[in-house]
């Protein structure tokens, strides 16, 4: 009889091949890490202004263009600072007067806060919905940017990328946080003007970088605003774009992050691109939600199946079954990071199902939870 959750030993044949289920940073495949060490041809520790690192940036830009079937005229830009930095980039360079945000979790709310606090903008319009559901932007006079997360990583709810009717004709941009969705959820990039993300989620790389797929309208908006508004150089989208076009970043990037990202992109494209990655995340999600629905002590947190994310699954547990104990037992067996977003404060498991994560490992994860729950009584 186990005395504490951490004493529970899960039989090895139940364990996943890889025990990383965190929603970011997320599982990095071994083949990516091996590429970092590739003898004699590693660009680590070399200048980011020279060809080997610029070739890496080029590989990422062309890889993303292929993966997302980039519409005519769209461009791939990148810079340092992660998605959080891009919120400030967008606040300065994309919002002319007033943004409208759909906020239904931590990340959507954070961007809303960034634009709301900018002294040179009108207070943002925020359409809210409770965690575990989805809010939709709606046409509003005077709004020149509509923004929402494609996947709300803090709650496991996903919202389709589809322009607000009439918004483009009214001259408004659509700015989508694809941080955890990009690479793992289907998207028609033409429905957005800026689809931005960071590499440590669905791309299984490391953090610190932002990447954005920009429409000609977004590029023009940045040029217009930066001509009339002071913008810190680090947050200038035009400067980022100028550097990106030369396969560089404004300042020194983490070369390891670039390399891990390029390896993951090549892998995704070799396997069949977004059609393959999204089929894989859908298979993982179908298993996870089906499993939760069939256990009396588990319930998918997102009640509307249409709003459930295929890349981040949130499963509420019965109050009699503390998630902390389940997580402690899992961690003691090398199955890690399936904790709920801390500010959500729910008795919940949150399971990343990014493309790098094998659907068989998601099945193994649920078998491990079953085993632990049985032992915990
Ligand atoms: C992780 C995450 C962010 C923050 O990304 P950073 O690169 O850490 O700034 C923003 N939005 C969403 C949807 C995320 O999942």
Task: Summarize the SSE layout with pairings.
Elements: H1 30-37, H2 51-67, E1 75-80, H3 82-93, E2 99-103, H4 106-117, E3 125-128, E4 145-149, E5 151-152, E6 157-158, E7 173-177, E8 194-197, E9 209-214, H5 216-228, H6 237-245, H7 255-271, H8 273-293, E10 298-300, E11 312-317, H9 323-332, E12 348-352, H10 359-376
Parallel strand pairs: 2-3, 2-4, 4-7, 7-8
Antiparallel strand pairs: 1-9, 5-6, 8-9, 10-11, 11-12
Describe the structure.
The protein is an alpha/beta fold. The chain folds into two domains: 12-28 and 273-374, Aspartate Aminotransferase, domain 1 (Alpha-Beta Complex); 30-270, Type I PLP-dependent aspartate aminotransferase-like (Major domain) (Aspartate Aminotransferase, domain 2). 36% of the residues lie in helices and 14% in strands. The protein contains ten helices and twelve strands. The protein has helices spanning 30-37, 51-67, 82-93, 106-117, 216-228, 237-245, 255-271, 273-293, 323-332, 359-376; strands spanning 75-80, 99-103, 125-128, 145-149, 151-152, 157-158, 173-177, 194-197, 209-214, 298-300, 312-317, 348-352. The chain has a seven-stranded mixed sheet with strand order 1-9-8-7-4-2-3, with helices on both faces. A three-stranded antiparallel sheet has the order 10-11-12, covered by helices on one side. It has a two-stranded antiparallel sheet with strand order 5-6. A hairpin with a 4-residue loop joins strand 5 and strand 6. It is globular and about 65 Å long. The mean pLDDT is 97. Bound molecules: pyridoxal-5'-phosphate (PLP). Pyridoxal-5'-phosphate binds at residues 24, 82-84, 107, 149, 153, 177, 179-180, 198, 201, 207. Its cofactor is pyridoxal 5'-phosphate. Pathway: Amino-acid biosynthesis; L-serine biosynthesis; L-serine from 3-phospho-D-glycerate: step 2/3. One of its GO terms (molecular function) is L-serine-pyruvate transaminase activity. Its EC number is 2.6.1.52. Residues 143-319 form the Aminotransferase class V domain.
């Amino acid at each position: 009889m186990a005395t504490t959750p951490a004493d529970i030993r899960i039989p090895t044949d139940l364990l996943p091949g890889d025990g990383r289920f965190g929603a970011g940073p997320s599982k990095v495949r071994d083949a990516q890490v091996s590429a970092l060490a590739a003898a004699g041809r590693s660009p680590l520790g070399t200048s980011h202004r020279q060809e080997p690192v610029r070739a890496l940036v080029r590989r990422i830009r062309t890889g993303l263009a292929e993966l997302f079937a980039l519409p005519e005229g769209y461009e791939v830009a990148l810079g340092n600072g992660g998605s959080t930095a891009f919120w400030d980039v967008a606040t300065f360079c994309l919002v002319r007067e007033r943004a409208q945000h759909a906020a239904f979790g931590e990340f959507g709310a954070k961007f809303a806060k960034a634009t709301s606090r900018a002294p040179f903008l009108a207070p943002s319009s925020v359409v809210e919905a409770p965690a575990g559901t989805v809010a939709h932007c709606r046409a509003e006079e005077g709004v020149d940017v509509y923004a929402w997360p494609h996947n709300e990583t803090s709650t496991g709810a996903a919202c389709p990328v589809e322009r607000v009717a009439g918004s483009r004709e009214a001259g408004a941009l659509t700015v989508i946080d694809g941080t955890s969705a990009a690479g793992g959820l289907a998207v028609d990039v033409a429905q957005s003007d800026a689809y931005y993300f960071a590499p440590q989620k669905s791309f299984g790389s490391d953090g610190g970088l932002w990447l954005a797929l920009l429409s000609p309208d977004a590029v023009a908006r940045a040029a217009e605003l930066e001509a009339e508004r002071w913008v810190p150089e680090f947050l200038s989208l035009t400067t980022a774009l100028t550097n990106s076009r030369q396969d560089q970043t404004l300042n020194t990037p983490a070369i390891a992050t670039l390399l891990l990202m390029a390896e993951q992109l090549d892998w995704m494209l070799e396997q069949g691109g977004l059609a393959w990655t999204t089929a894989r995340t859908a298979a993982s999600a179908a298993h996870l939600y089906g499993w939760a629905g069939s256990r009396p002590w588990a319930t998918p947190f997102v009640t509307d199946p249409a709003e459930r994310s295929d890349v981040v699954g949130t499963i509420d547990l019965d109050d009699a079954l503390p998630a902390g104990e389940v997580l402690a037992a899992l961690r003691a067996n090398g199955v890690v990071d399936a904790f709920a977003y801390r500010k959500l404060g729910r008795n919940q498991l949150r399971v990343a199902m990014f493309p790098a994560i094998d659907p068989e490992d998601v099945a193994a994860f649920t078998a491990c939870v079953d085993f632990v729950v049985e032992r915990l009584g």
